[in-house]
Amino acid sequence: MTQLLLQTDNPLSEAGSLITLVFAGLFFFILITVFIRRYKRCPSDRILVVYGKVGGGQSAKCIHGGAAFILPVIQDYEFLDLTPISIEVNLVNALSKQNIRVNVPSRFTIGISTEPGIMQNAAERLLGLGQHEIQELAQEIIFGQLRLVVASMDIEEINNDRDKFLTNISESVETELKKVGLKLINVNITDIVDESGYIEALGKEAAAHAINAARKSVAEKNRDGSIGEANALQDERTQVAAANAKAVDGENTAKIEVANSDSLRRQREAEAERVAIASEKVQAAKALEESYAAEREAELARAERERSSQEADIIVPAEIDKRKVEIDAEAEAERIRRKAKGEADAILFKAQAEAEGLYEVLTKQAAGLDQIVKAAGDNSKDAVLLLIADKLPELVKTQAEAIKNIKIDKVTVWENGGGGKDGKTSTSNFISGMYKAVPPLQEMFNMAGMELPEYLKGKDVTKEIPVSGETTTDTEEK
């Protein structure tokens, strides 16, 4: 029985061990795969930026030309491209130190720096930006610094000392580019021109000076040639005279020939000297004329600069003041419009509130009248009677008010006892007329299109009023 159990348990233990080995191998394989995938190598033309929890109080760790293991979950990475970026900067109307506007077309080549501190700036400010966005950022920085360099130098200095101009640009631009992690690789200034033509005038002046110097040198060389020629002729004459002195025969002939030759030489020398002097004067006059022309152009350029300066000092402030007045007027008009709109809105809200209140009052009155009609059995006449019955004390009070101020202290009637045409005495007619002055209820109900109830009409009674021993009949409605 024991052997059977052992034989039954052995296959299960072997299967468990095999499963354990398989899981251990799989875990080890996954671990190696994760390690390999998280181990990143940095190419030479890129910068590996590891961000997340990098330690050392830094926001990121930059690696150039190496490798790093990126911890899962708590770290991640990106690459910065070191490919140079060429930027064309065409600076137009830059104001120089002499208040002359110049155009400086140029091309700058930049790239992300690999210096440790500057590389950290690039990781903090350029990570995630595309090449076009980096180019726009660098272009704005270059434009501003290029204007500052032009404003700090004279036109002559910019035009003549290009090395100093390029050095100033490089130092100024590179200092600002380092703040965002960039490096200036190359600067190329193609040409410098100005709208007033001042640089062109300087070029013409330099050309005139060079031409005058060349012409002067040619004249000096011609003079040296003439002097050498004269010296050679003098040597020749001396040798001929010596030869003629030794010769006895033909001495006079030789002297004549020498005299003729000397005369011809002097004529030629005089002619050559005249031509040389005339040529020098002509050249000097032309040089002076060109110099005057250059000075005239320079003066015109200076006058144009003064005019531009005056316009900037007078016209521009006037335009600014004009614009300020227009803006203030527009602001005042806008304030008045808003105030009027607010008052109109307040009136509208008040009218709406009064209308809503009147609507509520009329609605409540209509609801009350509807309840009264329902209480009267949907009979409108009975409902009116109910309303009049409700107001009856006030109507009676109004009737009483009509005669309460009539003060009758004493009524004395003198009559002879005779009756009128209707059989009534004067006393009865007086009392009846005074009673009729009070508005009767029956007439009020008749005007309303209703009939007074019987219990409010009363009955006719006849009273005998004795006057001076005689009696008369009076009808009174109660």
How would you sum up this structure, described in words?
The structure is a single chain. The chain is built from eleven helices and eleven strands. It is an alpha+beta fold and 478 residues long. It has five domains: 2-30; 40-78, no CATH class; 80-195, Tetrahydropterin Synthase, Chain A, CATH 3.30.479.30; 200-320; 383-477, no CATH class. Strands 6, 7, 8 and 9 form a four-stranded antiparallel β-sheet that branches. A hairpin with a 5-residue loop joins strand 6 (85-95) and strand 7 (101-112). The longest helix has 125 residues, at 251-375. Residues 1-8 and 460-478 have low confidence and may be disordered.
Taking all residues together, what is the mean pLDDT? Answer: 76
% residues in beta strands: 15-25%
Q: Give the structural class.
A: alpha+beta
Question: If you compute it from the alpha carbons, what radius of gyration comes out, rounded to the nearest whole angstrom?
Answer: 64 Å
Give me the count of strands: 11
Which labels suit this protein?
478 residues; alpha+beta; Tetrahydropterin Synthase, Chain A; four-stranded antiparallel beta sheet; three-stranded antiparallel beta sheet; 11 strands; elongated; disordered N terminus; disordered C terminus
What's the topology here?
Elements: H1 2-38, E1 39-41, E2 46-52, E3 60-63, E4 67-69, E5 75-81, E6 85-95, E7 101-112, H2 116-125, H3 131-151, H4 155-160, H5 162-178, E8 182-189, E9 193-194, H6 198-246, H7 251-375, H8 380-404, H9 426-436, H10 441-447, H11 454-457, E10 460-467, E11 470-477
